Amino acid sequence: MNIILNPKLENIIQKQITSGKYTSIDNVLEEALNLLEKRNEYEQWVEEIGQKIDAAAQQLDGGEGIDGTTAINQLSFH
């Protein structure tokens, strides 16, 4: 695969190689793509958590659930 990068991206990659942290363009791009994948996974996780929070809030609004004191008492070890 041939990729043409704009000067800004070339400069970023070159700085990373010059810093000594990476030894090649491939190393820089691999790290960048791994981070992109992790970010996508994180964004999906955040969306799923948001949906669970919304569902729980709807349950509470519908009268389902227990008050805080009861919840804490149920968590306490007796």
Itemize the secondary structure elements and their pairings.
Elements (H helix, E strand, L loop, with lengths): L6 H12 L6 H37 L6 H8 L3
Number of helices: 3
- Percent of residues in helices: over 70%
Gyration radius, in Å:
24 Å
**Could you list the spans in which at least 5 consecutive residues all have pLDDT below 50?**
none
Q: Describe the biggest sheet? A: none
Q: Structural class of the helix and strand makeup? A: mainly alpha
Beta-strand fraction estimate: under 5%
Q: How many structural domains does the protein architecture include?
A: 1
- Taken in chain order, the helices and strands follow as HHH
Shape: elongated
Q: Determine the N-to-C terminus distance.
A: 64 Å
Tally of strands = 0
How would you state the average pLDDT, rounded?
A: 93
Overview of this protein structure:
With 78 residues, the protein is mostly helical. It has one domain (7-64). It has helices at residues 7-18, 25-61, 68-75.
Features:
single chain; 78 residues; mainly alpha; 3 helices; 73% helix; 0% strand; elongated
Question: What would a concise description of this structure say?
Answer:
The chain has three helices and no strands. By secondary structure, the protein is mostly helical.
